[in-house]
Design goal:
single chain, alpha/beta, TIM Barrel, two-stranded antiparallel ribbon
Length: about 270
């Protein structure tokens, strides 16, 4: 399943519908919605694009379970993600305490290396958002190692490579290429989204075009490029579903099936 790992939320329903409709038309079967504030989160959760009640699921879980999160008003299922942009380490810790029980994935975006290091170490953080040159330069080997150990995903964006003129584009590509050499996709979990498109929907690129770009320009083998667009976002969405459905008991322990009471009585006869 091709998944767009980061599309921007719009409070205007008609504007947002244009984004997710285009997302669907160019080949994505699901998307993660980027919410940048508490108001964004509340507006999305209360909107007609996200189920008001906890969807019923069947075991064993698979990525097809995400289809239960699609509403009648959306062509594809949408999963919420809140991107925190803390100004200090204390602010990050407070934010994580507030958001850990909410129905969302948690991403952290910062140019402060200390904040990124704490975020990469904290198991409550799902994603490190590094869409720009400056943020990618701040990813030290130590931060990358912590993110890998804690299964924290690295969120990059290719939008600026489409948007900017040749000189800036060359610089962006150079920094991205260095990051991919330092944190190889074969051993680190990358996801790619369309967060930077803002109101210019036509900057969004389809999954097959993105895979082709990663292969031909970034020298990423095609099977690894496909992993960035398919396997990695599927994993993180399943993480959200398990958390949303209260299937996590403690680290390393989770519910994998629920036996129906009537079925259990039948087995005991």
């Amino acid at each position: 399943m091709f998944i767009n790992s980061c599309i921007p939320w719009q409070n205007n329903p008609s504007d947002f519908l244009k984004i997710i409709s285009l997302c669907h038309q160019i080949g994505y079967q699901a998307a993660i919605v980027d919410l940048k504030s508490k108001n964004d989160y509340q507006n999305f959760i209360r909107s007609d694009f996200f189920p008001k009640n906890l969807p019923k699921i069947k075991f064993p879980l698979s990525i097809k379970t995400v289809l239960n999160y699609r509403t009648e008003n959306s062509p594809i299922p949408l999963i919420p993600r809140v991107t925190l942009n803390p100004k200090s380490t204390n602010s990050l810790k407070k934010d994580l305490t507030v958001w850990k029980e909410r129905r969302c994935l948690i991403a952290v975006k910062s140019l402060n290396k200390e904040i990124l290091e704490i975020a990469a170490r904290d198991g409550r953080v799902d994603i490190l958002s590094v869409p720009t040159i400056d943020s990618q330069k701040n990813l030290t080997k130590g931060i990358i190692s912590l993110a890998r150990q804690n299964e924290c995903y690295l969120d990059i964006s290719l939008t600026h490579l489409i948007e900017f003129e040749h000189f800036k584009r060359t610089k962006i590509l150079r920094v991205l290429y260095r990051l991919l050499l330092k944190a190889k996709p074969s051993s680190n979990k990358y996801i790619i989204g369309s967060d930077s498109i803002n109101n210019n929907y036509w900057l969004m690129r389809g999954p097959k075009e993105t895979i082709s770009f990663l292969f031909s320009v970034c020298n990423i083998p095609e099977f690894q490029a496909k992993k960035i667009l398919v396997k990695n976002p599927e994993e993180i969405i399943l993480r959200f579903i398990k958390r949303d459905q209260k299937l996590f008991i403690e680290p390393g322990v989770e519910i994998v099936d629920i036996i129906d009471k009537n079925a259990e009585e039948g087995l005991n006869k």
